[in-house]
Protein: GFA family protein
Organism: Duganella lactea
Amino acid sequence: MNQLQGSCLCGGVRYRAALPVSHASHCYCTMCQKQHGAAAGSYANVASAGFAIEQGAHLITEYVSSDEGRRGFCRECGANIFWRSTRSPDRIAITLGTLEPEYAGPVQRELHTDAKPAWLPHA
Ligand SMILES: [Zn+2]
Ligand SMILES: [Zn+2]
């Protein structure tokens, strides 16, 4: 398989992204925690040129979370689809949890670990 595929919770949005993934990450920043309602936002960083919304582009709302941050989600079901920065328009970070099949690659980076919540289970 030479690409990743994913969809939102309601199935209205479907996308694909060309490989390779430059890196995958868990981001523990407080904005990711708020948006995902979880300990982290988990992402695969890919080239934006290879990213395409195949279905449901009209359902995607982009929340402007900072000067450069844009967080795309499905307005029907609330699923977070991607994060991108206007400072690096050539890259886009797609959410690991929306990938189908399940993401099989490694997660190389943990970001903003200073904000990692204490209620995460410890290995
Ligand atoms: Zn949806
Ligand atoms: Zn974050």
In short: The helical segments are 30-36. The longest strand covers residues 41-47. The domain at 3-104 is CATH 2.170.150.70 (Metal Binding Protein, Guanine Nucleotide Exchange Factor; Chain A).
